[in-house]
Protein: EF-hand domain-containing protein
Organism: Guillardia theta
Amino acid sequence: MVDRLEEEQLKQLRTSFTLLDGDGDGRVDAVDIQKFLGTFGAHFSLEEVEEFINEESAHPNGVLDFPEFVCMLSRLLGFALKKPVEVSRATLHRIFERWDQDGDGYLSANDLRSAVKEVGEEWSDAQVNDMIYFKNTNGLFTFQDLEDIIVEKVQTIDDD
């Protein structure tokens, strides 16, 4: 579902996220998200929202940045529709290839920094390194690493 969002939908989510992010630090917490979901009639306990946050966050710290926020909402929408969120392997390959700026088959820190900047985020060096080293200790973030992370969050479909 994340890959099916229209640009206008992403802009609307960005606006909502910015409004929720009262202190402007690029992150929203469980209370903010609970209120946001409540405006759509989706009533979750604070504990449920905190659980969603910890499941979606690359580094569970009780808050979500914008990409994590979008993934969480997509997942919640999938639950509400009783359908799994699906992302095709071909889509993942296209995303990875776009992010892999030098075409070497790995996402470097600079590649990842550019990718998150593309969606309006600014990550610190520590956040970038957390993601690069999330799956491997060698600092080489491969397509398989991206797929593994996505598979943990959503269902991939094979459309090759």
Observations:
- The CA atoms of residues 30 and 47 lie 8 Å apart.
- The chain has two domains: 2-80, 86-157.
